[in-house]
Amino acid sequence: MRVLVQAERCQGHGRCFIECPQVFGSDAEGFATVAIAEPGAELTSAVRRAADSCPERAISISTGADGRPISADDPGRSRKSA
Amino acid sequence: MSGISTERAALPGDEYRFDHHSAKMTSTPWSVWARLRNECPVAHSEAHGGHYVLTTYEDVTAAATDAVTFSSDGDGLGVAIPPQETRPLYPIDADPPIQREYRSILNPFLSPARVAAMEPWVRKLARAGVQKLPADGTFDVAALFTLPFPRMVAFTLLDLPIDELETISHQVDIASSERGPAGQAAGAAIYAKLAETIGRRRSQDHRDDLVGALLTGTAEGRPLTEQEIMSMMLLLLFGGLETTSATLAAMLLWLSDHPEDLARMLADPSLMKTAADEFVRWASPVAHIARTATDDIEIRDCPISKGSRVLLSYGSANRDTTVFERADEVILDRFPNRHIGFGMGPHRCVGSHLAKLQIRVAFEEFTGRYADFEVADYNAVRWSPGETRYIRSLPLTVGEKVSR
User: Which residue in B205, B223, B280, B273 sits closest to B247, CA to CA?
Assistant: First the structure.
């Protein structure tokens, strides 16, 4: 499992590290950081909760080798850069 | 142009005569929001010079996260309909990229880590506020606690003079409740107090706090102007007052009505991990906020021309039953809970972590003293008019805990 925070989406709501403090942290401004980019399987459920808690859907989770995403990241949502 | 009717054809939504400042929208907005979500999710209203209003979670969140199409600056009009007298307030009335720069100055001082370190003095303020309340009987918990406590927190954060906090709190009371000369005078007094604080701090050594960050902050490669500094202090002051008070009072109201939930929270303090956000969703103090369309756009086949004012109903989005099951109930362990009570996108509430700390600490201190509480008179529960929905009067009858 590979965990990624899409920095351009993260707005510092801080919900992810409440749900899964082992994997997610926050930087000086409160934006999410990833402490363990490839957490073990025992953390799958906590990592999924963290991803599901993000109002901005900034967290993506993909499976190992083939990189196929296993967490919802809304592809239909347009995201203008700003 | 005699003989030609100048009456504009009604636009879809006009027939609902939506007015977010109306009394019914202040006290009982939910059925109006539900009707619009279901019948006219992109509605035009002729109120306040004419604007559109979005009420679904899908449309509101899409707009909030698209700061390019939906401008907060709006060529100086800002994020209130009608435009606020005191504007611009930064960063709320600014757009990226400068809005990001303003936020970079403020974010570190309201980050989760910094806020966690504030707990001791925030708790001291909460405890002091609760201790001042009557031991038993009936009192207005809004006037005596949920309104003053967040003020004390904000005043402390902004380094206002400690021996004058009560006086300034009183002035905030008047400024927010009186529209006429008395209100304006109180507003001017608060403004002067902030200016005095800036002046005092300029003459002192630099300190690593919010005010210090504003005094040394830069944007666009130059120091912040006096206007920018004052504007940000005003927003930090007012932005966290009624909003936080709203959620505190809404929490006490819900728990008064639902003793089963009070019992659950007392039995399991870890519920606050999800409950704080749920109270924010349910209360949604920032019920509405505005943007200006920067281009001709279409939402659900409804054309919105460039320059149009668009009101985003965060309050309606947070009650959208297609997203939130049992949306009108507080579900203490609701998950997921991607509410927009703290906003979304670049303008996500900078004080959200401090707000949640206050919610938890206020709950702990209030229930630490009182074993039970209930609304004394539902006819006396009063909501405020205006941009922020909050309870300004909440008579509770309380019973103190008996120590064994």
Answer: B280
Instruction: Give the rounded distance of the alpha carbon of B356 from its chain centre.
Output: 13
> What are residue A33's phi and psi, to 5 degrees?
-125, 160
Model confidence over A38-64: pLDDT tens digits?
A: 999 999 999 999 999 999 999 999 976
Per CB distance under 8 Å, which residues of A are interface residues toward B? 11-15, 17-18, 26, 28-30, 49, 52-57, 77-82
Query: Where would I find the H helices in B85-241?
Result: 98-106, 112-117, 119-131, 141, 148-157, 165-177, 181-202, 210-216, 226-239
Look up the ipTM and state it: 0.93
Contacts with B67 from chain A: Cβ below 8 Å: 80, 82
Contact B186, B177 (CB under 8 A): no
pTM of the model: 0.94
B154 touches B193 (CB < 8 A): no
pLDDT band at A68 (very low <50, low <70, confident <90, very high): low
B84 at interface of A, judged by CB pairs closer than 8 A: no
DSSP H stretches of helix in B178-321: 181-202, 210-216, 226-239, 242-257, 259-267, 272-283, 314-317
Each residue's pLDDT tens digit, A18-29:
999 999 999 999
